[in-house]
């Protein structure tokens, strides 16, 4: 890339001159909840530094965060003056209520740490170990992008650029960088933090997700504004653009392969109890190896342990993709509303990017049709009736009558028309710059393992350990079978290379 990440003047955001960004235990501009999560498995006395925007100020203030109980963390403000600082500590004084005490003056962070390893803080705790920032928090000096030539688009809260991430071994990877808006010093701190929180909501969800058909999160940068989210770059663009530009020349095998890929990604999300809420062709991207990746998790929500749905009013609703239960004052979202949207995605792929009721100008008519589940069919666009059979199971008025995403995958695999190595080679997505698909559609319908314990606790019951070991043995057997399948892919690669 031709230009490095824009630097925000150090004196503007972090007036302190002690190079806090260089410290491994500086966690950046994070919330109290973030610190709670970062120190969750730590011991009493473990600590980190964070910064925050004060409501009436335009500079970041630094806090010492110390774990003092199982669920309790104190946040002490570091008050700087002339490149030195004191720790502001609030205590209860009998007869005087709460008062703030100043620590001795410290010349640097190490000075403070050494002092409080031998002396108690106001909370009665000595400092123990410094806790490094999470691995997904990246060094902004390793991220490069061009604000002029590299712009890919923008959303409500961020700009998106094409860039590069330099790894510790010197290797560079292509990335997509989301850069927060509202970081000007004339903007109030509440707006800046709101922008940060919206941008990081998607990243927070993706930190727990890894799947070949879901966009990959590399990490975030939150040292100071502007805030960054760094993601996998999909050189093929969106499925929406693909089907609009090349859909007419696309064979049905390719259309079904695209849908199988997307379906597998959504199935994994649902197994992780996550509702996407914005599934559409525009949010399915094409990687360099021609795989479809579900992306844009800005509206996504993780369900609670015993939760199957949640209600929420939508300000800007993408009407064409909404299920009947979502078109009301308080919309209800669940994995079944995602399934409805998946049906609309199928329609988009088969009708060259068009959506249901696209020519209908009367919104009221569209709403009435959706509420009645009076939806169009694929019909002669498919050579197999199985596609419409699947849509009949998807587009039902009541979510409880709707098939789930696993059943969608089973329908798609059963409906898959014959294909071979030549079919792959003829795929329209292989005409996209930088894209080469070598894999045929994955027809394995077995549910995937979403969680596998790394080790067994000694306290686990014998029955539990036996079950887990059996599960591990079964998983190992499946992996062996997949390795055998993988050997056959060399024939695909050889075929593709032979005509390059």
From TrEMBL:
Pfam families (UniProt xref) = PK_Tyr_Ser-Thr (PF07714)
Carries keyword Acyltransferase? Answer: no
The organism's superkingdom is given as Eukaryota
Quote the InterPro entries the UniProt record gives: Kinase-like_dom_sf (IPR011009), Non-receptor_tyrosine_kinases (IPR050198), Prot_kinase_dom (IPR000719), Ser-Thr/Tyr_kinase_cat_dom (IPR001245), SH2 (IPR000980), SH2_dom_sf (IPR036860), Tyr_kinase_AS (IPR008266), Tyr_kinase_cat_dom (IPR020635)
This entry's Enzyme Commission designation comes to 2.7.10.2
Q: Where is the SH2 domain?
A: 25-131
Keywords, comma-separated and alphabetical:
ATP-binding, Kinase, Nucleotide-binding, SH2 domain, Transferase, Tyrosine-protein kinase
Q: Name one GO molecular function term.
A: ATP binding
UniProt xrefs under SUPFAM superfamilies = Protein kinase-like (PK-like), SH2 domain
Please give the SMART domains that the UniProt record associates with this protein: SH2, TyrKc
Provide the Protein kinase domain boundaries. 146-417
The enzyme class is transferase
Query: Does the keyword Transferase belong to this entry?
Result: yes
Signal peptide range: none
Please give the catalytic activity noted in the UniProt record: L-tyrosyl-[protein] + ATP = O-phospho-L-tyrosyl-[protein] + ADP + H(+)
Q: Please give the family membership noted in the entry.
A: Belongs to the protein kinase superfamily. Tyr protein kinase family.
Write down what this protein is called. Tyrosine-protein kinase
């Amino acid at each position: 890339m031709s230009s490095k990440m824009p630097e925000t003047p150090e004196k503007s955001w972090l007036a302190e001159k002690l190079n806090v960004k260089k410290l491994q235990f500086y966690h950046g501009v994070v919330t109290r909840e973030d610190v709670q999560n970062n120190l969750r498995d730590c011991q009493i006395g473990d600590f980190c530094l964070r910064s925050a925007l004060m409501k009436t100020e335009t500079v970041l203030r630094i806090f010492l965060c110390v774990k003092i109980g199982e669920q309790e963390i104190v946040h002490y403000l570091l008050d700087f003056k002339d490149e030195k600082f004191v720790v502001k500590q609030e205590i209860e004084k009998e007869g005087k209520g709460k008062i703030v005490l100043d620590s001795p003056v410290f010349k640097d962070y190490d000075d403070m740490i050494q002092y409080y390893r031998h002396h108690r803080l106001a909370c009665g705790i000595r400092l123990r170990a410094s806790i490094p920032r999470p691995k997904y928090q990246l060094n902004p000096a390793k991220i490069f992008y061009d604000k002029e030539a590299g712009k890919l688009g923008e959303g409500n809260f961020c700009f998106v650029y094409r860039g590069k991430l330099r790894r510790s071994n010197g290797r560079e990877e292509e990335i997509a960088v989301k850069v927060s808006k509202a970081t000007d010093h004339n903007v109030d701190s509440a707006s800046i933090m709101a922008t940060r929180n919206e941008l990081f909501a998607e990243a927070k969800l993706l930190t727990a997700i890894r799947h070949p058909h879901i966009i990959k999160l590399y990490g975030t940068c939150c040292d100071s504004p502007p805030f960054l989210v760094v993601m996998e770059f999909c050189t093929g663009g969106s499925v929406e653009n693909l089907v609009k530009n090349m859909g007419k020349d696309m064979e049905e095998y390719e259309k079904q392969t695209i849908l199988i890929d997307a379906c597998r990604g959504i199935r994994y999300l649902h197994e992780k109890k996550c509702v996407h809420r914005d599934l559409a062709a525009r949010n399915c991207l094409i990687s360099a190896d021609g795989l479809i990746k579900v992306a844009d998790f800005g509206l996504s929500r993780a369900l609670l342990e015993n939760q199957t749905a949640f209600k929420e009013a939508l300000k800007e609703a993408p009407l064409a993709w909404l299920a009947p239960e979502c078109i009301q004052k308080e919309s209800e979202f669940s994995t079944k509303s995602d399934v409805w949207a998946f049906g609309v995605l199928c329609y988009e792929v088969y009708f060259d990017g068009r959506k249901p009721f696209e020519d209908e100008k009367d919104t009221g008519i569209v709403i009435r049709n959706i509420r009645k589940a009076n939806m169009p069919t694929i019909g002669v666009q498919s050579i197999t009736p199985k596609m419409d059979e699947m849509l009949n199971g998807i587009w039902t008025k009541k979510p409880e009558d709707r098939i789930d995403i696993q059943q969608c995958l089973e329908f798609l695999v059963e409906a898959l028309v014959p294909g071979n190595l030549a079919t792959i080679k003829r795929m329209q997505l292989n005409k996209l710059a930088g894209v080469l698909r070598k894999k045929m559609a994955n027809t394995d319908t077995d549910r995937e393992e979403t969680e596998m314990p790394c080790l067994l606790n000694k306290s686990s019951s014998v029955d539990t350990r036996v079950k887990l070991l059996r599960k591990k043995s079964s998983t190992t057997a499946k992996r062996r079978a997949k390795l055998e399948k993988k050997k056959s892919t060399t024939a695909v690669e050889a075929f593709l290379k032979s005509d390059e």
